[in-house]
Amino acid sequence: MSPMLILAAEEMENPLVPPIPELVIGLLAFVIVFGFLARKLLPNINKVLEQRREAIEGGIEKAEAAQTEAQSVLEQYKAQLAEARHEAARLRQEAQEQGAALIAEMRAEGQRQREEIVAAGHTQIEADRKAASAALRQDVGKLATELAGKLVGESLEDHSRQSRVIDRFLDELDQKAEAAR
């Protein structure tokens, strides 16, 4: 290489390498700004980060507490639901038992009323039969007396004789009717 080029190359400075005084001033300015930021800004940033960390941890703790409380409420709800189902089953069973008892009671009352009605019917039938028998005796007695009077040709108006004849005739009829049964 020519000496001139070497000289020109020496005089020509590298544009990428700053001059030393600028490098020193830049380095001092960087240290001053870094120190200022480290003293003033870094504690505030750390403080805000710490508050956020505490808020997040507190939120997690609150979420865990809420989850625990929700689990507790869920268990209580399940217990109440189970108790309500048990109570409903018990009430349903009681209602069925009461219904069965009521049906049995009504059946017994119906049976008793039926028996009373049947007994009253038998009594009424017996009374009607006796009344019909008495009316029939009286009518048959009159007819028999009239017929006997016409046959005999004399009046059987004697009351005592008439009663004896009628009673004897009807007693014979009753005996024949009972023997036929």
Task: Please summarize what this structure is.
This protein is mostly helical.
Descriptive notes:
It is built from three helices and no strands. The protein has helices at residues 3-11, 20-152, 159-180. The longest helix is centred in the middle third of the chain and has 133 residues, at 20-152. The protein is rod-shaped and about 200 Å long. The model has no long low-confidence stretch (mean pLDDT 83).
Layout of strands and helices, then pairs:
Blueprint: H1 3-11, H2 20-152, H3 159-180
Helix pairs in contact: 2-3
Beta-strand percent range: under 5%
Global geometry:
rod-shaped
- Count of discrete alpha- or pi-helical segments spanning 4 or more residues: 3
Rg is 66 Å
Structural class computed from helices and strand pairing: mainly alpha
Please estimate the helix content: over 70%
N→C terminal distance: 169 Å
SSE string, helices as H and strands as E: HHH
Largest beta-sheet characterization: none
Give the overall average pLDDT: 83
Number of E strands:
0
Low-pLDDT stretches are: none
Spell out the key features of this protein.
181 residues, mainly alpha, single chain
